[in-house]
Each structure stands twice: as structure tokens, then as C-alpha cells.
Amino acid sequence: MMKIIILIFLLCVLANKHACARIAPKKIRGYNIDRVTDEAIETECDLFSGTWVHDTSYPLYDALKCPHISTEFNCKANGRPDSDYEKWRWQPNGCNIPRFSGRGILDKLTGKRLIFVGDSISQNQFLSLICLLYTEFPDTFVPSNSSNFRFKSLEYNSSIEFFWAPYLVDLEITEEGKRILHVDEIQNNAMHWMGADVMIFESSKWWPQVLGSQRWDIIVEGNQSYADMDPVVAYTKALTTWAKWISSNPNPQTLVLFRGTSFSHYDSRKRCDEKEPIQDPSYNPQPTFHAKIVEEVLKSTSPGVKFFNITRNSAFRQDGHSSVYTTLKISAPHEDCTHWCLPGVPDSWNQLLYA
């Protein structure tokens, strides 16, 4: 029946899009479609390809008024003197996206559980969403544990959670401190993800691009142990394990996204002290090896699993990193050119989720 309704709606759009509002379904699989505009119908929208536009109506929240930002992401509190990095809006090619609405997100999340799974960049995005919601509804989502990794709303019967799993697959720490990466096992991590309605995964930064820079001591696959493994092979095996779990476990109605690699901007001095985004529209950043593997592995999953590819979006924002402003002590031993100041780039990812 739903397929028939959608077909009638699409035929109506082709014939007379302005008359469609009377018969258009308000939701499909629980997600609002009543923000479809004439522009979106008439043009091809690419959410992940676009430009950054300076917008003085930004930021969407004040870092100093959100109590949930981790210190390393709160550049303003750590003394960053400029503020233009907060005033850029992502403009996709071919369409406009609505300004973020906490109410809109809450409507979508009513009765649902949203989880972020990955490394500290996923935590960056998770805390961005918490602050976006806190600004409009400071008493709605509250921490349900001391780690600030799980926020619940009794009013909306929903939760937003972050799970640390930088490899997605299981990492075992022995009593002797040995780090054993099981590229074919995921259950110890995945047991915490069961029952989520929206899952946003990411795994890339902890996978080295060259041998010898790994953060594990041993790789195990089945009964075989390896002192090391080609990074491409290891990453492919781990993602394949994740893909098999995704295909066999979540409810078909679960929305599953795999977020692309967030860009780092270390220059030849291992620094990132730029004050403006890259403005050259012809700039074409070369992806890391992760993207091709992700796209290939996702082909083996159900059609409902989507690649949330924010790599190009983040590649232009050389100005948005935490840099030396990860602590109040400005003379930090190194600059962080991987994580993002909040407010900042991760807010745009959550705006794309809302769109």
C-alpha cells in the first residue's frame, strides 16, 4: 500500500507538484518529507559536495553556554582569539538545506535510540548534536551516567549515545597490557548497539596508512596470530566483519550510516593555524585508502546502509581544528589538526542528518 501511495505522489509531482500537498504522505518510514521544495524536485541535490559560505547568523550555539563540550573541543574557552571559524555554513550543490531545528530532530527521535560508534571524531559529532539540542531544550536531554556518553529524554522517550570503538571490531587488552585486535570478532562491542533505531558508524583514524604505526600489538583472525598485517587487508577484514553483523542483526527499519573520513590538515610544520577555509573551488583532496574500501564493503550490506561521506565537506576547513587550543595552556606540545572546535564543522554533519 505504501509503495502505491509513493508512486501516486511521484506521478503527481511530475504532473503538478503544487497540487500534491493535498495527497502527499507526511512521513515515509517515520521520516518527514514535508520539507521537499520545488528546488529540491527540480534540481539534483548532492549533500556532500558544495562550498562553505560565510554566514554571520552562525554559530548555532555558544560554546561557553553548553556544559557538555569536552575541554579539547572547546577552543573558545581555551583562549582561541578569533571567532570566524564559527561563522561558516555548508552549502550543498544543487539545493538548500534547512537550518538546524532541535524541534525537528526531537520529532524524528521520539521513541527512538540514536547511537554514534567510532573514535573521538565520532565523539566530536556526538557532542555537537548534544549542544545543538541543549541550546533549544536545555532540560530535555540529560546525562544518564557520569561519562557524558549517554543522554536520555524521558519526555520524548529517546536517547543519544556514544560508544568508543575505534576499530569497530573487538580490541582485547590482556592483564599484561597486550593489545590484541580481533579482525573477525565484533560481539563484545556490538552487544551494546543492539536495539538502536539510528546507527552512525565511523572507523578510519586508528587504522594506519603505513606499516609500523599501528596501535595494537597482535592481530588475531580465527586461530591465526600476526605480528602485523597490511593496513588495507586488516581494514578490509574488520569492515567485512562489521558488514556481516549489520546485515544479520539490526531491524530492517534501522537507519544505518557509515560516516566518511574526517580530513586532517597537518602542514609541513605539523601545524594548522589557518584562519580561513580553503577557498579554491577546484581544490580536489585525495581520499585516503579508507574510502574505497568502505564503498566496496557497503555493497555487501543491505540497501538501507548509506555512506555519509563528509570527507570533502571537512577537507576545505583547514581553519576549524582545535590546533593549540585543546587546553588553557597554549604552549601545548603539539597541535591537534584532526579534531574540530565546537561550534564548528561537526555541526554541519548534524545539520545534514536533519536535512
UniProtKB/TrEMBL annotation:
Trichome birefringence-like C-terminal domain ranges (all copies): 97-355
Keyword Nucleus in record: no
Topological relation to the membrane, as annotated: Single-pass membrane protein
Descriptive protein name: Trichome birefringence-like N-terminal domain-containing protein
Main localization category: membrane
Cellular compartments annotated: Membrane
UniProt xrefs under PANTHER family: PROTEIN TRICHOME BIREFRINGENCE-LIKE 36, PROTEIN TRICHOME BIREFRINGENCE-LIKE 9-RELATED
GO molecular function: O-acetyltransferase activity
Keywords from the UniProt entry: Membrane, Signal, Signal-anchor, Transmembrane, Transmembrane helix
Family membership noted in the UniProt record: Belongs to the PC-esterase family. TBL subfamily.
InterPro entries recorded: TBL, TBL_C, TBL_N
Origin organism lineage: Eukaryota, Viridiplantae, Streptophyta, Embryophyta, Tracheophyta
GO cellular component assignments: Golgi apparatus; membrane
Signal sequence extent: 1-21
Keyword Transferase found: no
Domain called Trichome birefringence-like N-terminal: residue spans: 44-96
One Pfam family this sequence matches: PMR5N
Source organism per UniProt: Taxus chinensis
